[in-house]
Design a protein that fits this description.
Keywords: Glycosidase, Hydrolase. InterPro entries: DUF5110, Gal_mutarotase_sf_dom, GH, Glyco_hydro_31_C, Glyco_hydro_31_N_dom, Glyco_hydro_31_TIM, Glyco_hydro_b. The chain is of the alpha+beta class. The chain is 19% helix and 32% strand. The chain has 4 domains: 227 residues, Sandwich (Immunoglobulin-like); 330 residues, Alpha-Beta Barrel (TIM Barrel); 78 residues, Immunoglobulin-like (Sandwich), CATH 2.60.40; 113 residues, Golgi alpha-mannosidase II (Immunoglobulin-like, Sandwich). Bound molecules: alpha-D-glucopyranose (GLC).
Length: 799
């Protein structure tokens, strides 16, 4: 046993004996003789916050990550002191705080240890910065696995890895490269079938070591600020992810078109080229909802300006694109060109809105426009001003959404790729240096953009994309995984990153389909599309310094495959929209890695490739050239192969056929999957039928379909349609009950039920206890019937 005093020589300082305890409603304060205070706040029975002060002082309590509406309130709290420890108990967990060392041990009420301090909280006085490096070390439990942490491009199970949270522009990053664009200091631990989560809410550069340096120790530390973490008890992983997502928030619903297909490139210009690309989509009948303008639309890369040579009449162009069903999305970067004749620069200068160096002058750095100054988005006045800048772009010209890039913030031609650390920030009235504000800068930019876009697209819904993000950014913006490469390895990386982001509370995410740097061949592009249509954000983007990367750029075979998969995405729009609804309502990640789906099955703990799209569709991308299929793990339960309708029982690895025109795809038995007809863009046609694909099961299963006006805010006033279907199948019988909520009237009158795997021939159909003649059901063979959308109970029997 190492004692605290023995460790001090290593330069670390440790709390010693607790000499004082105080309870103030939901807050408990434990003070040690050497001036450390541990504050435990009980947010919920399963969510606790741990904060540590040294020298008896806490910093002002402020966080950009925490959602104001996060649920709080607990049922039970009891504190008991024994000779050696304090015992804190809620209705879900028990926390022991050791009196001699301040170390903490958390267990469930059956006494199973969930998480325990090794050395616990300790710190190092750092005289380079004149502050503390705050540290925490925990004992790694037997067979413990680790997940989450945002966009890390490494194996989904982080055991044995060390990661670094420092937002960074990483052009053409590699597998395992650190750090990347985002800083999401949240992980999920799993051992003994118990999941818990830990969110270290500290925006300084932070590190997590998952049993990498020492096999039995998991530790995390930051270059400043407070040791301030939230603990979430599962015991199931979805409970953990939901609690973290509730604490840091979810977005509003995007307009439905945002879930369509998007085409981007650096850059489409001039206007003629933009229109050519748009037209080609319509000519080839490849659905597409959005086209992107990268930096070349601007005049000398000045944000909020237009290059009039390339785009003589942007408003007209945007309108014409819109008439053809395309939304225009434009990029906006944080660097404002130093140019006294440029209005944005002038306004910022006049109002003193730019970031300043520690010794006074404006922070200057080179980005696309050359020398730039950078707004301090951590200042609420700057955010308010920034929002007003969108008036012309969105309000007058009609651009529908904004893509924020380079907001780590990225600076060119300097080895650190970002601001010097002495740069000052307002941090919403808690002035600090860039060391503290760096990781949050991109989020605050996206937040300001969101406010602006929201204001000027009103009464429509806003849509924002960001490259950099900290925990909580998901409340304002979607994101993509940055400058990847057109390689097979990057297809693997994209799959892992998107799943990992979903586990980290941030579901609205996608990759540059096909790869940003370098040129994919047709096969890689097709395989990437097959994965990309199952990502919440689905956009092709490329650097454009090589060949074309449109769906038709790789010959007709690939074009046909790409069309088929984009069409599938459009058919699945109601399913995707429902996934989004579930995400914002209760924090359910839109994609579930298998371990999230079934943690009890230890086979899932080290899987990376397979994931559940929503709740009922299993997807596994093909990530190798020349493949005719692949081996994959099918999770427990019974599944229908989407392509062959053959059923298989999961719980083992198997070979699945998937030639170049297929991706392994399985539907959970009992699922009811809603589908729209294919449209070339959202809103092209009025939806006159909803297809419900029913995958027969002996037993019960529930499915949900959420719909609304597809844009606008009426859904917040109850104008939505939420249908819950309960399916019960027996050998010779199928019952589907419908429970409906919300006042939105869907435009279609009927459901077209398509039955898959029905083990009997339909003989009798009763709708709400009344027999319906088979001829009235538009019966199509043995598997399709059409009935009114208002039914409550559908009862089918065979002979
Ligand atoms: C950055 C972005 C990329 C964009 C380019 C030009 O590299 O990550 O998506 O195309 O800048 O704006």
């Amino acid at each position: 046993m190492i004692t605290n005093t023995e460790l001090e020589y290593k330069g670390n300082l440790y709390p010693n004996k607790i000499v004082d305890f105080l309870q103030d409603a939901d807050k408990l304060f434990f003070t040690t003789a050497n001036g450390v205070i541990l504050q435990i706040t009980i947010l919920r029975d399963s969510v606790l916050r741990f904060r540590y002060a040294t020298e008896n002082v806490f910093e002002p309590d402020f966080s950009y990550a925490i959602n104001d509406d996060a649920g709080i309130g607990y049922n039970h709290l009891n504190v008991v002191k024994t000779e050696t420890e304090y015992i804190v108990e809620t209705s879900k967990i028990r926390v022991l705080v050791d009196i001699d060392t301040l170390r903490v041990q958390i267990s469930d009420l059956d006494g199973n240890i969930i998480n325990e301090d090794e050395l616990g909280f300790h710190w190092e006085e750092n005289y380079e910065y004149g502050g503390n490096v705050v540290k925490m070390s925990k004992i790694t439990q037997g067979a413990e696995s680790f997940y989450g942490m945002g966009d890390k491009a490494t194996h989904s199970n982080l055991k044995g890895k060390r990661v670094d949270n420092w937002a960074m522009d990483q052009y053409a990053f590699g597998k395992d490269q650190e750090p990347l664009y985002k800083a999401i200091p949240f992980y999920i631990g799993l051992h003994n079938n118990i999941s818990y989560g830990l969110f270290f809410d500290n925006t300084f550069r932070s590190y997590f070591d998952f049993a990498h340096e020492r096999r039995n120790v998991t530790s995390f530390w930051a270059d400043g600020g407070e040791m301030n973490y939230y603990f979430f008890y599962g015991p199931k992983m979805p409970d953990v992810v939901k609690s973290y997502t509730d604490l840091t928030g979810t977005p509003e619903l995007p307009p439905l078109w945002v879930l369509g297909f998007h085409q981007s490139k650096w850059s489409y210009y001039p206007e003629k080229r933009v229109k050519e690309v748009a037209k080609k989509f319509r000519d080839l009948k490849i659905p597409c909802d959005a086209i992107y303008l990268d930096i070349d639309y601007m005049e000398g890369f000045r944000c909020f300006t237009w290059n009039n040579n390339y785009f003589p009449d942007p408003k007209k162009m945007v309108q014409e694109l819109s008439d053809d069903g395309f939304k225009t999305v434009a990029i906006i970067d944080p660097g404002i060109k130093v140019d006294k004749d440029y209005w944005v620069y002038q306004q910022a200068k006049d109002n003193d809105f730019f970031c300043k160096r520690g010794d006074g002058p404006y922070m200057r750095g080179k980005v696309w426009p050359g020398e730039c100054n950078f707004p301090d988005f951590t200042n609420p006045d700057v955010r308010e001003w920034w929002a007003t800048l969108y008036k012309e772009l969105i309000g007058d010209i009609g651009v529908k959404a904004v893509w924020n890039d380079m907001n780590e913030p990225a600076v060119m031609e300097v080895p650190t790729k970002t601001f010097p650390l002495d740069v000052r920030h307002d941090y919403d009235g808690h002035p600090c240096s860039h060391r503290k504000a760096h990781n949050i800068y991109g989020t605050q930019m996206a937040r300001a953009t969101y406010e602006g876009v929201k204001k000027y697209v009103y009464p429509k819904r806003p849509f924002v994309i960001t490259r950099s993000a900290y925990s909580g950014a998901q409340r304002f913006t979607s994101t993509w995984t940055g400058d990847n490469v057109a390689t097979w390895e990057h297809l693997w990386i994209a799959n892992v990153q998107v799943q990992r982001m979903c586990m980290s509370g941030f579901s609205f995410v996608g990759s540059d389909i096909g790869g940003f740097a370098e040129q994919p061949n047709g096969e890689l592009f097709a395989r990437w599309i097959q994965l990309g249509v199952f990502h919440p954000f689905c956009r092709v983007h490329s650097s454009g310094d090589h060949g074309d990367q449109e769906p038709w750029s790789f010959g007709s075979e690939v074009t046909n495959i790409v069309r088929k998969f984009i069409e599938l995405r459009y058919q699945l729009l109601p399913y995707l929209y429902t996934m989004f609804w579930n995400y914002i309502q209760d924090g359910t990640p839109m994609l579930q890695p298998l371990v999230h789906y079934d943690q009890e099955d230890t086979q899932t703990h080290f899987r990376t490739d397979e994931f559940i799209f929503g709740k009922q569709i299993l997807v596994c991308p093909v990530q190798e050239p020349n493949a005719k299929g692949r081996r994959m793990y099918v999770p427990r339960g019974k599944w229908y192969n989407y392509w062959t309708e053959e059923t298989i029982v999961g719980g083992k690895e198997r070979w699945v056929i998937a030639d170049i025109d297929k991706i392994p795809l399985f539907i959970k038995e009992g699922a009811i999957i809603p589908k729209y007809p294919v449209q070339q863009y959202v809103g092209e046609i009025e939806i006159t039928e909803l297809v419900l694909d029913v995958y027969f099961k002996i037993g019960a299963e529930s499915s949900t379909v959420y719909e609304d006006g597809q844009d606008g805010f009426d859904y917040k006033k109850g104008r939505y349609s939420l249908r819950k279907f309960r399916l019960r199948g027996k050998e010779n019988e199928l019952i589907i009950q419908q429970f409906k909520d919300g006042s939105f009237i869907t435009p279609y009158k009927n459901f077209t039920f398509k039955f898959h795997g029905l083990p009997f021939k339909i003989a009798n159909v009763e709708v709400d206890n009344e027999k319906v003649a088979l001829k009235d059901l538009k019966l199509n063979g043995n598997n399709t019937i059409e009935i009114s959308k208002d039914f409550t109970e559908l009862h089918i029997t065979g002979n």
